[in-house]
Amino acid sequence: MKLRLGKILVGLIIFSLLALCFQPAAARDAVVVSPGTTRYVAPNGQDSGNCTSPTSPCRTIQYAVNQAASGDTILVAAGVYTYEQSVDPCPFLLTRAVVCVRGKNLKIRGGFSPNNWQLFAPNNNLTIIDGQNNFRGVVINGYNVPKTHLEMSGFRIQNGLAQGPTYLNPYDPAGMGGGLWAQFASVSLQDMHFVNNKAIGADTISGDGGGADGAAIRIESSPLDTTSVIERVIFESNISIGGNGPDRGGVAFGALFIYKSNVLIQDSVFKNNLAQAGSSSGRGVSNKDGLNADALGGAIGIEVGNVVTLRRVRIVDNQVKGGDGYIYGGGAFGGGILVEDTKLFEMYDSIVEGNIAKAGSGQTAGNTGGGGISSQNTELFRIERSLIISNSGIGGDTTVNGNPAGAGSGGGLYIFSTRPSGNYYATLANVVIADNRSRQGRGSVGPTNSAGAGIVFHGIKADIYHATIAGNQLDPYLPVGQAMIVLPWGSIPATVNLSNSIVSDHSQGIAGACAIAVIQGGTLNLNHVLFARNIKDTNADGRPVPAGTFTGINTIRTASSVRYVSPGAPSYNYRIRASSPAINSVGAGSIADDIDQQSRPYQNAADLGADEYWPFDLRGTVNDGEIYLDWKIETQPFSNAVAYYMVTLSCEPGASSPNEIQCGQSINVGNITQLKLTGVSNFKNYTIQVDAYDASGDLIANSKTVTLFPTDIFIYLPLIVR
């Protein structure tokens, strides 16, 4: 991949000039936000007056926006809102928008009933902005008006369309921002749903096909002292499709495209979104920028970002598909997320699962980097307490018999740098990288054509702490780096420090296939790593490929099994069991918590891998001659593996056995998670522990031990009413 700046910068300049031409002089002054007026919109309203009466609302959101001043709030009742040309203030848009905000700082909130403007209930009062597959949903333009901002909540934005061309002079065939497009402005979006929006690049008769990005949302060039917020937002089934062109198909980015902006995304879901690059009957390479028809970031694409943070985000079942070319197929990078030339990307407590990157076809097939996430030239790339599981990187197909198949590397993660002068660094902590796949496309195959099914570190410095890297797979005939590969980018070395981690269960594939491969020019420093059930742990012996530098080999531990709770599909539960050899393995550990935010270590020494084993809590209460036990919530992290629980009871001398269990014995209580013991002695101690077992009778986890003291003495305090 190369930096794609030319088209973006030209677009910014032209859009800005057009917006200025249509903007009154007074509106180009700085926005002053004062305590605002509330305005009301409902489908049965009338577009007249100033929309300030809750009993006489206006009919269109756009009319209310036109009446509003900065600082105002617009409340919108349930209904479907579509484009109205008569109130459109943004004629410079080639693809118009249902709502267009320029030069104002507003709040627009859906989810109300015209009978109750006090209750925000977006699930009950479905409020829809519908582009009808002809119009954008929302546009926010802040050119020459500092701090333009839209706070929006409680809407479903559907069927939006950004159809290329976006500009005519000079001509730009790209389609940008189908659901919402924010330019020179910041946004705050809560409780929203973007579904079935599209960005479509135009087909061309010369040069490259039109690019496509931000099918749901495009955020570009927001003021760098602002941060756009996306919170509790669902991105579903949005599609970016690059146009076809005689030289090369259009490049495509996925549902959310971020350019030169700070963005915080939290408690949100991206699912079933697609970025499909355009195709070409020509070479498949641009004569302008030398790029192929690449598809990037099916859920999220970040170019020249500033600071982008994800917290508690699910990136599930998204895809990128490179475009086809007669000579060169396009690449596919970041089936879930693409990060490029960004100062800081950080992700916490998130899941990246089931995403696919598939490169395009050509005489020279396209290559793939990062089925889950791809990062290039990111100054600081950080992931903590997250799962990267079951993603796939698939190379393109060659159209010529005997030509090499396209490479599919970094099924989970592909992190690389291409600039010798840059300082790029990645850190991964408390992560599970498991069950990802790297596959070649159709064509002639070679043993080193694809590598690093879990992770590729390519010309980058990285630290990995308390990672669990397990069950990743290359094609059966590929031997290099099922879990991870460390290799230089030309003259740029790669150095990775792997500490307090687990590398296991890379047991399927050709004989001699190694879990970790370090290529000459790469260095891997190992510090307390547990290897288990791999065909071969590393290539430190020079096989199957000549080795780079390994240090810390003497700190390696091996075991026959890590003993996870329920590894692989469908549970992907890589927590460790009570009997795991990873328990109590290293000092106090370098991180204060684990992937579930439990403190680390539990005892004097920390566990290896992402999970710190803790006995689960057992809660007990007492009554006259009775004990009540409850362990339901505490066992949820491994409940999908539990077949039955054993309850063990010990009693103080002289205590009566409960009716349900004899003192000093254990009973199988099945899979219940609450138990009442009756007939116990008051004023005697009863000590209880619960153990969880799987169907084979293998121990999963123990509870903490509780001691309870039944009594018939209770103190009732008087109720004092003041």
Q: Care to describe what's here?
A:
The protein has about 725 residues and is mainly beta.
As for the number of domains, it is 4
- What distance lies between the first and last C-alpha atoms, to the nearest angstrom? 71 Å
Gyration radius from CA atoms, angstroms: 29 Å
Oligomeric state of this protein: single chain
Task: Please describe the topology of this protein.
Layout: H1 6-21, E1 38-41, H2 61-67, E2 73-77, E3 79-81, E4 97-102, E5 105-112, E6 127-130, E7 136-141, E8 149-153, E9 156-158, E10 161-163, E11 167-168, E12 171-172, E13 175-176, E14 180-183, E15 186-195, E16 198-200, E17 212-213, E18 217-220, E19 228-236, E20 239-241, E21 252-253, E22 256-259, E23 263-266, E24 269-271, E25 274-276, E26 295-296, E27 300-303, E28 307-311, E29 314-316, E30 319-321, E31 332-333, E32 337-340, E33 344-348, E34 351-353, E35 356-358, E36 368-369, E37 373-376, E38 380-389, E39 392-394, E40 408-409, E41 413-416, E42 425-434, E43 437-439, E44 455-458, E45 461-465, E46 468-470, E47 473-474, E48 480-487, E49 494-504, E50 514-518, E51 522-532, E52 536-538, E53 549-551, E54 557-559, E55 564-566, E56 573-576, E57 619-623, E58 626-630, E59 644-651, E60 666-668, E61 674-678, E62 686-693, E63 699-702, E64 706-708
Parallel strand pairs: 1-2, 2-5, 3-6, 4-7, 5-8, 6-9, 7-14, 8-15, 9-15, 10-16, 13-17, 14-18, 15-19, 16-20, 18-22, 19-23, 19-24, 20-25, 21-26, 22-27, 23-28, 24-29, 25-30, 26-31, 27-32, 28-33, 29-34, 30-35, 31-36, 32-37, 33-38, 34-38, 35-39, 36-40, 37-41, 38-42, 39-43, 41-44, 42-45, 42-46, ...
Antiparallel strand pairs: 11-12, 55-56, 57-58, 58-61, 59-60, 59-62, 62-63, 62-64
